[in-house]
Design goal:
The protein starts with a helix and ends with a helix. The chain has ten helices and no strands. The protein has 193 residues and is mainly alpha-helical. The chain has a domain of 102 residues.
Length: 193
Amino acid sequence: MSMEAATDNAQRETPLMLSQLIDQLSPPPEPSPVPWLPQTWGWAVLTTILTLVLLWFVLRHWKRWRSNTYRREALRELDRRLAQGEGLAAVADILRRTALAAWPRDQVAALRGEAWVAFLDRHFPTSRYGRFSGPLGIALINAPYRPGHDSEALDQLANLTRHWIRHHTTNRQPSAIDNHKPSPATIRSSAND
């Protein structure tokens, strides 16, 4: 009887639907989260190398930006003094002070006349902006001694001076002393005292 009863019970039960069978399944296990750190040493080495290269590039750019501070200050001072109408004497003064900020005093301070103009041309990388030798050089040499100025020569010399300040080349490496070098603003204030 037990066999017959089990068969009767099985026939009386209704078969389960597929959705009911799926609901009876246990849920799949959650996968472990993907780690952000590299799993192999090769990726760690590559990441370290790329980080060091990026750090080197940023430091190099920052040092170059800091070493060119005198250029930015000279350009601001040139624009300010030309706006005040100081003329060719201001251009000559700013060129001299910019050269003194970029080279040792013993190489620049004694230069006068044609030697000064030749120095400016020698450290100007290209002639596409023009040269200081010629009529502009003569106007530059005579600027401190002539209060009046030719507006055309002033415009040409001011543009040439801007290009020279931006693009002149120096051969020396910045030293620890350069970090304490007076800025053109400091030089200007000490000259006025």
